[in-house]
């Protein structure tokens, strides 16, 4: 949460000039050489804007590539990837609306040039798309849980109707946490509202304790706990299935060797035919096991990749919500 400092009414009352921004207060000492400070200030602004521009471009093209890939390849059009495409759209909108406005603030040295109303729009869109992005990851973790833990019931559970319902909740519910409390003024304190009216060129997002607890719980803590629980259950189930496959392969190899030894020692045609039939059925079973094993490996690989993404996401967001 950002602390706000009121501007001095009379610049002669202080020996320094405080310059408000969206995240901090730039203080320019009056007794410092202006050219030296100007070069440092311009360098920092140029560095920040360059980094932010690269991040915005990477976010736009990276997420656009995900959407195009799924749309162009029919094999990728599965339920899980529809969640991924929707997530990519949410992240693209974060880059377009939230990050671009933030980029403009950094470019102008901390001055908000779009007015009081657009400040509320910016803050609302920032909260809205960020919350939608987190909820998408939560839905993906639930989808992977059913795909690996309950593979036989997965087609019955994750239907197209349920997919549409989940996406509708993901896209509609964040509006109750963003646009409504921000435009009504429930999210902050009366002092901050007065400050914004007095200084419309400053666009900061300062929240009260009630909104902070509710928004952080809905946007991060509850979805984060669901994701951790889902991927823990996935890990336990994947480990159990791996052990079962290993045991079945060992048992099949021992049975195959036992049948071959019995067939050679007996030297009886009928027994050999029986053994051959058993071996053929065993080969078919092994092929089925290999197909099942290959499918499970793909599912585990997808879950592992998404687990890494979720872990990185939680690690990046955790300091923000703890602060």
From TrEMBL:
It is a multi-pass membrane protein. The chain crosses the membrane at residues 37-70, 82-105, 125-142, 163-187, 218-236, 302-322. Gene3D superfamilies: Rhodopsin 7-helix transmembrane proteins. It comes from the Eukaryota. The keyword Transmembrane helix applies. One of its GO terms (molecular function) is octopamine receptor activity. Its main location: membrane. Coiled coil: none annotated. InterPro entries: GPCR_Rhodpsn, GPCR_Rhodpsn_7TM. Keywords: Cell membrane, G-protein coupled receptor, Membrane, Receptor, Transducer, Transmembrane, Transmembrane helix. Residues 62-323 form the G-protein coupled receptors family 1 profile domain. One of its GO terms (biological process) is positive regulation of MAPK cascade. One of its GO terms (cellular component) is plasma membrane. It is found in: Cell membrane. It holds the Pfam family 7tm_1. Belongs to the G-protein coupled receptor 1 family. This is G-protein coupled receptors family 1 profile domain-containing protein. It comes from Brassicogethes aeneus. The lineage of its organism: Eukaryota, Metazoa, Ecdysozoa, Arthropoda, Hexapoda.
């Amino acid at each position: 949460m950002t602390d706000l400092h009121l501007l001095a009414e009379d610049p002669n009352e202080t020996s320094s000039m405080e310059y408000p921004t969206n995240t901090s207060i730039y203080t320019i000492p009056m007794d410092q050489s202006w050219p030296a400070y100007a070069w440092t200030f311009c360098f920092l602004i140029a560095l920040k804007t360059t980094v932010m521009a690269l991040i915005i471009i990477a976010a736009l093209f990276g997420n656009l590539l995900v959407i195009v890939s799924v749309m162009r390849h029919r094999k990728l059009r599965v339920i899980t990837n529809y969640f991924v495409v929707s997530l990519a759209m949410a992240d693209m909108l974060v880059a377009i609306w939230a990050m671009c406005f933030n980029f403009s603030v950094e470019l102008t040295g901390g001055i908000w040039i779009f007015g009081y109303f657009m400040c509320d729009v910016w803050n609302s869109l920032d909260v809205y798309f960020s919350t939608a992005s987190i909820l998408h990851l939560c839905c993906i973790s639930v989808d992977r849980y059913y795909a690996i833990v309950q593979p036989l019931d997965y087609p019955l559970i994750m239907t197209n109707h349920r997919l549409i319902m989940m996406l509708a909740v993901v896209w509609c519910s964040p509006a109750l946490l963003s646009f409504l409390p921000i435009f009504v003024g429930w999210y902050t304190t009366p002092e901050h509202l007065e400050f914004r009216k007095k200084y419309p060129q400053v666009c900061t997002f300062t929240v009260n304790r009630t909104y902070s607890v509710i928004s952080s719980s809905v946007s991060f803590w509850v979805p984060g706990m669901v994701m951790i629980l889902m991927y823990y259950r996935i890990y336990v189930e994947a480990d159990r299935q791996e052990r079962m496959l290993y045991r079945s392969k060992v048992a099949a190899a021992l049975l195959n060797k036992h049948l071959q030894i019995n067939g050679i020692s007996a030297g009886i045609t009928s027994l050999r035919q029986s053994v051959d039939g058993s071996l053929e059925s065993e080969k078919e079973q092994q092929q089925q096991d290999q197909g099942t094993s290959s499918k499970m490996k793909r599912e585990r690989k997808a879950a592992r990749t998404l687990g890494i993404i979720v872990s990185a996401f939680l690690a990046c967001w955790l300091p923000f919500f703890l602060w």
